[in-house]
Design brief:
This protein has 298 residues and is α+β, with helices and mostly antiparallel strands. Among the domains are: 53 residues, no CATH class; 139 residues, no CATH class. The protein has a 3-stranded antiparallel sheet with strand order 3-13-4, with no helix packed on it. It has a two-stranded antiparallel ribbon with strand order 1-2. A two-stranded antiparallel sheet has the order 5-6.
Length: 298
């Protein structure tokens, strides 16, 4: 009886152990389920991680795309900036064109005669206490005139014809002498030798405004007493002579004509300065200097 009880107890114990072992296996399965759950959770986490990675990749892709876009924007900006810079450069080019307007000024650098022929231009001169204009520049008619320096001398009343003078004054030019009452005094010489040209530099010349061709000892031509337009000074005789032409053309404002002495250059007839090249139309003839208003010689 006692032995049977012991065997029964042992059997029950064995069964209990078996049940515990089976439960343990199930529990392990459950645990495995939990582990699996954990695995699922891990999978979820892994998915999440993967998702995160994907999201991260997407984010990274987005960032990259954003970066690319930003880069594109930057590149676009750079291009736009380049275009703007190009625009500025273009503007600079246009500004340069405007500045070059001065360089492209149709009047700048022209000679006096060429300036006169351009309807957009005008010549500027300075009168240095005489009526011989000094050409300074050619400019647009709309531009400011050249500023001549102050000289502190009395400027003569220069003219191109009588109309520019107050009556009874007349416009007297370099090659023309206008007389009032003629001078009838006798001559003071008949030859150059009587004037001692070697010592005095004087020669026997016809008197201005003589009544009957009288002559006087008067200074011959020199650097300080130049000849008139279209003439040259003979250093030996100290007399002015006409410029020869024919083989050599006359200067602007002069015409080559035949005379008893041969072909010579004489001032051209004119009505305006445009016909005189670099010279001026004075009393109907081309001259290198303007005339001056003066009373008639008595």
């Amino acid at each position: 009886m006692r032995l049977g009880t012991i065997v029964l107890v042992l059997a029950l114990a064995a069964c209990g152990r078996a049940a515990l072992l089976d439960d343990s296996k199930d529990g392990g399965g459950t645990g495995g389920g939990l582990s699996g759950g954990g695995g699922t959770a891990g999978g979820t986490a892994g998915g999440a991680t993967a998702g995160g990675a994907t999201a991260g990749g997407a984010s990274a892709g987005g960032a990259s795309a954003g970066g690319a876009s930003a880069g594109g924007a930057s590149a676009g900006g750079a291009s736009a900036g380049g275009a703007a810079a190009g625009g500025n450069a273009g503007g600079g080019s246009r500004a340069g064109g405007a500045a070059g307007g001065g360089a492209a000024d149709p009047c700048r650098g022209l000679t006096d005669s060429a300036c006169r022929l351009n309807p957009l231009c005008t010549s500027d001169y300075c009168f240095l206490c005489t009526c011989r204009p000094r050409y300074e520049q050619c400019r647009l008619k709309t531009a400011a005139p050249f500023g001549c320096p102050p000289l502190g001398c009395a400027q003569p009343a220069c003219c191109a014809n009588d109309a520019a003078c107050s009556r009874p004054d007349m416009c007297v030019d370099s090659n023309t002498v206008r007389c009032g009452i003629c001078n009838n005094a006798p001559s003071t010489c008949s030859t150059d030798a009587q004037c001692d040209p070697a010592t005095t530099g004087n020669i026997c010349k016809p008197r201005d405004c003589a009544c009957s061709g009288q002559s006087d000892c008067l200074p011959g031509c020199s650097a300080n007493n130049p000849c008139g337009d279209g003439q040259v000074c003979n250093a030996n005789t100290k007399r002015c002579e006409e410029v020869r032409c024919g083989t050599v053309p006359c200067a602007g404002g002069f015409s080559c004509v035949m005379s008893p002495a041969g072909a010579i250059c004489v001032p051209r007839s004119c009505t305006t300065d445009l016909e005189c090249g670099d010279l001026f139309c004075v009393n109907g003839l081309c001259k290198s200097t303007l005339g001056f208003c003066s009373a008639a010689i008595p």
